[in-house]
Amino acid sequence: MIEFVETDAGTARITWHKAKKPQFVLALSHGAGGGVEARDLQALAQALPAHGVTVALVEQPWRVAGRKVAPAPKTLDTGWRGIWPALAGMQLPVVSGGRSAGARVACRTAAELGAHAVLALGFPLHPPGKPEKSRAQELLGAGVPTLVVQGGNDPFGKPDEFPEGDYRLIEVPYGDHGFAVPKRAEIGQERALEVITEGVVQWIASLG
Q1: Are residues 145 and 106 in contact, defined by beta-carbon separation less than 8 angstroms?
Q2: Strand ranges inside 63-157, DSSP E
Q3: Interval 75-129: pLDDT, tens
Q4: Contact 199/191 with Cβ under 8 angstroms?
Q5: Domain residue ranges in the chain
Q6: Burial environment of residue 163 by CB neighbours within 10 A (0 to 12, 13 to 18, 19 or more)
Q7: Which residues does 42 contact at the CB level (< 8 Å), separation at least 6?
Q8: Under CATH, domain 2-206 is a member of which superfamily?
Q9: Is 81 exposed, middle or buried (0-12, 13-18, 19+ CB in 10 A)?
Q10: Is the pTM of the predicted complex or chain greater than 0.85?
């Protein structure tokens, strides 16, 4: 089911993947360079409804409008705030999440929106090659239970670069920023996605 939502940043689009007896809503937005067709977002949308999690894939207004370049973080946050009533209207705990830029938005807005938890997929800890420009404070400041799923070879921040903090981290071996793994890797692409979906299922179940 597709739902269009008007926000102060423009029209957003939510594609719902509903569970029969949902216990949580997991809202997932895309990064600055792609849409909800990303392999990890699609894998979670297909797998989680069977585990009692309704998944809402959220396309930010800039993407719905056909623009190719994401706006400033402040505008992304505005778009995310605008879709929140549609999520909260399900009368279930909402896990706020996304990949890359979407993960940053989820972290920045979690406390104010009353998110139950945050799922950060491919959190861009720093720009590639610029570890001194850390965005760790966004992650550490989420203020709610947080799971980071990070590729082992992510140029935006490898798992061992992340600071200690009150969050969990799952590593996808050999994965890049989009969780693609090399053909020569010991882990295949299908298994890499299973690492993500299985880890997220277990984590959400632990939230109670």
Answers
A1: no
A2: 94-99, 117-121, 146-151
A3: 999 999 999 999 988 899 999 999 999 999 999 999 999 999 999 999 999 999 9
A4: no
A5: 2-206
A6: exposed
A7: 36
A8: Alpha/Beta hydrolase fold, catalytic domain (3.40.50.1820)
A9: middle
A10: yes
The pLDDT, as a whole number, for residue 208 is 75
Tokens representing 133?
């420009």
Give 72-77 contacts, CB < 8 A, sequence gap 24+.
Answer: 73/101, 73/104, 73/105, 73/108, 75/9, 76/9, 76/101, 76/102, 76/104, 76/105, 77/105, 77/108, 77/109
Cα angle at 180 between 175 and 182, to 5 degrees? Answer: 80
Task: Please list the residues that pair with 15 across neighbouring strands.
Answer: 2, 57
Tokens, residue 204: 């959400």
d(CA 168, CA 182): 25
Regions in the chain scoring below 50 on pLDDT: none
- Kindly state the tokens that stand for 54: 């309704």
125 neighbors 146 (Cβ within 8 angstroms):
no
pLDDT for the residue numbered 111: 96
